[in-house]
UniProtKB/TrEMBL annotation:
<dbReference type="Pfam" id="PF00977">
    <property type="entry name" value="His_biosynth"/>
</dbReference>
<comment type="function">
    <text>IGPS catalyzes the conversion of PRFAR and glutamine to IGP, AICAR and glutamate. The HisF subunit catalyzes the cyclization activity that produces IGP and AICAR from PRFAR using the ammonia provided by the HisH subunit.</text>
</comment>
<keyword id="KW-0028">Amino-acid biosynthesis</keyword>
<keyword id="KW-0456">Lyase</keyword>
<dbReference type="GO" id="GO:0000107">
    <property type="term" value="F:imidazoleglycerol-phosphate synthase activity"/>
</dbReference>
<comment type="subunit">
    <text>Heterodimer of HisH and HisF.</text>
</comment>
<dbReference type="InterPro" id="IPR013785">
    <property type="entry name" value="Aldolase_TIM"/>
</dbReference>
<dbReference type="InterPro" id="IPR004651">
    <property type="entry name" value="HisF"/>
</dbReference>
<protein>
    <recommendedName>
        <fullName>imidazole glycerol-phosphate synthase</fullName>
        <ecNumber>4.3.2.10</ecNumber>
    </recommendedName>
</protein>
<dbReference type="InterPro" id="IPR006062">
    <property type="entry name" value="His_biosynth"/>
</dbReference>
<comment type="similarity">
    <text>Belongs to the HisA/HisF family.</text>
</comment>
<comment type="pathway">
    <text>Amino-acid biosynthesis; L-histidine biosynthesis; L-histidine from 5-phospho-alpha-D-ribose 1-diphosphate: step 5/9.</text>
</comment>
<dbReference type="InterPro" id="IPR011060">
    <property type="entry name" value="RibuloseP-bd_barrel"/>
</dbReference>
<dbReference type="GO" id="GO:0000105">
    <property type="term" value="P:L-histidine biosynthetic process"/>
</dbReference>
<dbReference type="InterPro" id="IPR050064">
    <property type="entry name" value="IGPS_HisA/HisF"/>
</dbReference>
<dbReference type="GO" id="GO:0016829">
    <property type="term" value="F:lyase activity"/>
</dbReference>
<keyword id="KW-0368">Histidine biosynthesis</keyword>
Length: 280
């Protein structure tokens, strides 16, 4: 199996943002510049998530998608605020290859079945945002981790597969943005119990974490944000900062304190040294 390295870009308005536990979103810059750099340096796929779309009841990524699709020729997944078949159709027409459903899928699971029938299972990714509970179980959240659903994660992952999802984007809210590594227990639990690809997301701070998500967690792919963004910020001092929003992080010169400076090439080379198949 060829394991994929995916760049995850969380978008708020015109800006690329990053938070911790999906909160405290900090502006990092223009998403199209990061996306182009990742593409030129060997990323396998990109995922765009509009992190406030569900909150405002709309997705505002179509313009960004169209710009990206003109210059970048790798699979592009888009999520956030997609509630209907028409919403899905619109972002696919704009240039997305796949869509990611979370809130809409939990509120109306049949949209997975309908969308996979119309557009094909390979087009439909179900995002699961998970928080570990005191009793050791995991519950799913929506609206970028803001809304409690009471839905148990493992059962939901199995149901999503049965309804026709082509893959699962599995985000640990507990680990997101911390640089402390993926939640391997969560990743392994889902990957062992579904037959569709599982993308691990949330927590990578070094290339060894990527290896562990695949070797120990059984992930088919990993979605990276801070680990890639930090390298870009360190190597592009002359970049343009983002527009309005929480730009204090950029102005301060701070860094992601628990994230190493690495690159897509170094990550892939390390995985290959550890006998993990991935694209050159």
């Amino acid at each position: 199996m060829i394991h994929r390295i995916i760049g995850r870009l969380d978008i708020k308005g015109p800006n690329l943002v990053k938070g911790i536990h999906l909160e405290g979103l900090r502006v990092l810059g223009k998403p199209e510049e990061f996306a182009k750099y990742y593409y030129e340096n060997g990323i396998d796929e990109l995922i765009y998530i509009d992190v406030v779309a569900s909150l405002f009841g709309r997705n505002s990524l179509e313009e960004i998608i169209t710009k990206t699709a003109r210059e970048i020729f790798i699979p592009l997944t888009v999520g956030g605020g997609l509630r209907t078949i028409d919403d899905i159709r619109s972002v696919l027409r704009a240039g997305a290859d796949k869509v990611s459903l979370n809130t809409a899928a939990i509120n109306n699971p049949q949209i997975i079945k309908e969308a996979s029938r119309i557009f094909g299972s390979s087009t439909i990714t179900v995002t699961i945002e998970a928080i570990k509970q005191k009793d050791g179980s995991y519950l799913a959240f929506t609206d970028n981790g803001r809304e409690h659903t009471g839905v148990e994660v493992l059962g939901w992952a199995k149901k999503a597969e049965q309804l026709g999802a082509g893959e699962i984007l599995l985000t640990s809210i507990d680990k997101d943005g911390t640089g402390e590594g993926f939640d391997l227990e969560l990743t392994k639990m889902i990957s062992k119990n579904v037959s569709i690809p599982v993308i691990a997301s949330g927590g990578a701070g070094k290339k060894e974490d990527v290896y562990k998500a695949i070797s120990n967690g059984g992930a088919d792919a990993v979605a990276l944000a801070s680990l890639l963004h930090y390298n870009y910020l360190k190597t592009h001092k002359d970049r343009e900062n983002g527009e309005e929003g929480n730009t204090e992080f950029l102005k301060s010169g701070q860094s992601f304190s628990k994230v190493e400076v690495t690159s897509i090439e170094k990550i892939k080379n390390y995985l290959q040294e550890e006998n993990i198949d991935c694209r050159n």
